[in-house]
Amino acid sequence: IFYAAVSAALLAQLWPGVPGALQFPVVAYVVCLAAMAAQAATWWLREGSAPLSREAGYAALGGLLFISSDA
Q: Which residues, 6 or more positions from 67, have their beta carbon under 8 angstroms from its beta carbon?
């Protein structure tokens, strides 16, 4: 839900400046980026204290940073 809300807010800010021919690709990119970040965050939350939690945490951080850098 967090990544959907952030992506919707970013898309709302960008939308007035997106040319008509690029609207579909921009929406597709935002959806893919949010899905990737949400999957990484879900992996991290699900791992908890498991041995792979460090890798999952890095993936979740990477997803967050990727969205931030593209924003």
A: 3, 6, 7, 10, 33, 34, 37
Site of tokens 């890095």: 58
Closest CA to 43 of 66, 30, 26, 60: 60
Quick one: 43 exposed, middle or buried, by C-beta within 10 A (0-12, 13-18, 19+)? middle
Any idea how long the chain is? 71
Residue pair 44/60 in contact (Cβ under 8 Å)? The answer is yes
Q: What is the pTM of this model?
A: 0.81
Residue 63 pLDDT: 93
Short-list 11, 13, 16, 38, CA closest to 27: 11
